[in-house]
Amino acid sequence: MKRRQFVAAGASLLAMPWARRAFAGNEIPLRYNATEKLDETSLPAKALKLALSKLDKPYVLTPSPVGYPTQSGLINALSTGGEIDICWVGVERNAWDATLPVPFPIDGGLLGYRLFLINSDRQPDFSGVKSIDALRNFVAIQGPGWGDIDILRNAGLTVRTGLYKNLFRMTVGGRADYFPRAAYEAVDEYKQYVGDVPKLAVEQDLILKYKFTMMFFVSKKKPELRDDIMKGLAKAHSDGSYQAMFQSDDNVATALSQGNLGQRTLIEIENPKLPSEVNAIDKRYWFSV
User: Fold this and answer.
1) Are residues 68 and 196 in contact, defined by beta-carbon separation less than 8 angstroms?
2) Which of 27, 33, 131, 283 has the most other CB atoms within 10 Å of its CB?
3) How does strand 179-182 pair with strand 59-63?
4) What is the pLDDT of residues 125-169, one digit of tens each?
5) Is the predicted pLDDT of residue 121 greater than 70, yes or no?
6) Could you tell me which residues come within 8 angstroms of residue 60 by beta carbon, excluding any fewer than 6 positions away?
7) CA dist., res. 223 & res. 241, Å (int)
8) Per DSSP, what are the bridge partners of residue 114?
9) Rounded to an integer, what distance in angstroms lies between the CA atom of residue 269 and that of residue 102?
10) Closest Cα to residue 189, out of 274, 239, 118?
């Protein structure tokens, strides 16, 4: 198994790396989307707190007066002077062009590693798949409007859609052959739904990869904020505290410990929705198996 680029740092680095420091007044409000959780369940929130802890500036995280439930509304508010300073979303062209991206993949690109939920009886069929051409003989399923649909279809894969709550039964029932999910989602959803959907299983041999990640975005009017956050993230990565935080995250730990990512046949496809500029981001910041 190829060694991961993210290497766990010492346990001491986890000891309150983002503990708030005392500043002598002049605090700088940093308004984030009020609909987001800012706790230990959120990798982006932990990453942002860690980055800010590396700076000698009195940024104070504050929820926005208005919450933004959709990505399009959130990006529009950020780009048109709404009462918000920063957001974290999956990278796509509109967000990249309308705002200032912080060029650091929060999840290291782990979101682009997809495992399949399948009917357990179909495992022998998937074990014979060794290429994208072979995978094209199977039917994927996704929720309506999900961003993954265009990526999968661009690779020549057949995709059907259905309501999220029905996708597990539709997969096991034969309406589709596989349900691609982020690695940690596949493991968690299998545990959650197998009791109600017997024969639901995580496919054992394949991993579908396309370049996709979550990043921070700020207003174009605040280049200094973009630079500060990037500076904090780079410092955290350099001293190892970012890697320690990353690998201790529950979702990441689930994907790495139970996803068997390094033991699977890797099939890579292009992400036509990804801004080409993402390819220039420092390779040290990307996860790999």
Assistant:
1) no
2) 33
3) unpaired
4) 999 999 999 999 999 999 998 888 999 999 999 999 999 999 999
5) yes
6) 27, 28, 29, 30
7) 25
8) 182, 208
9) 25
10) 118
- The residue whose two tokens read 């780009």 is 79
The answer on 226 and 162 residing in a single domain is no
H-helix or E-strand spanning residue 251: helix 250-258
Range from 15-19, 21-25, 96-100 that averages highest in pLDDT:
96-100
Cα–Cα distance measured from residue 84 to residue 159, given in angstroms and rounded to the nearest whole number: 36
Residues 102, 216: one domain? Answer: yes
The mean of the pLDDT values for the chain is 90
Q: Are residues 38 and 176 in the same domain?
A: no
Structural domain boundaries, residue 59: 11-109+212-258
Which of helix, strand or coil describes residue 261? helix
Same domain? 192 vs 120: yes
CATH of the domain at 167: 3.40.190.10
pTM: 0.82
Backbone angles phi, psi at 212, to 5 degrees: -160, 140
For residue 275, pLDDT beyond 70 = yes
User: Distance between alpha carbon 204 and the CA centroid of its chain, in Å?
Assistant: 22
